[in-house]
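Deliverable D5.2: sample structural annotation.
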Amino acid sequence: MTAIATPRVATARRIGTTLRIHAANPWAIVYTPWLILMGVFLLNFSIWHLVLRAAGDRGVNPDAFHYNGGVSWVLFYMVVVAVQAMNQTFSFVVGLGATRRDYFLGTAVLFVGLSLMYGVGIAAFAGLERATDGWGVSGWFFAPWTFATMPLWEVAVVYTLVMLFMFFGGSTVAAVFVRWGANGIILFFASVAVLIVASLYAITQLEAWDAVGQFFSGRDAIQLALMSLVVTVAAGFVGYALMRRATPKG
């Protein structure tokens, strides 16, 4: 029993060490993203009030502030968080004796935990937004567009899954940087750009834009978010495969 349990305990300890080292800098992974999100929200809130003041007695359309993409800033920022977290800790944690597998598992646990925190947190603000009728000005920031009519648990699920997508996409970028440096990043994004352009060209040549539009319009936000799990899992495997061959830098 001891011989079987010992490797598992050692693995759990190394994963725990990875988590503690990531958590040693909460500004990068927790405080800064929330500050960015709140800053963007306050900017939007100020603009709403300026518009209402300028409109005066004429008023504005009831749904004028229902369509907002401000929350997307923090979603894309999660790619930066993932890259920074892995680039700053990989060499140190592996230098302490953790295997690359344990390091990546610990980092994956961190990403899942952060995704849940942000997903549930944003959904909680969406609930407050609804309770105050859009912060008193019918402004929808945390749950705009179709999110405004979704149950809050669905809002939390969608944001959590999108966060996972961003984090594990960022893990692939981080693994490329750790292994090949800046040149690898340039080649990676150039390859992604070529792939996107090639895909758009193929869709145009096949005259398949109507089919693509029907595919996406026929699914709600939670269905699309669940579909993103395929890419999220694939990104995780790619990131791990690249990380296995990365060399720690002193």
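Annotation notes: The chain has a mean pLDDT of 88. The radius of gyration is 21 Å.
The annotation will be released with the project's public dataset once the embargo ends.
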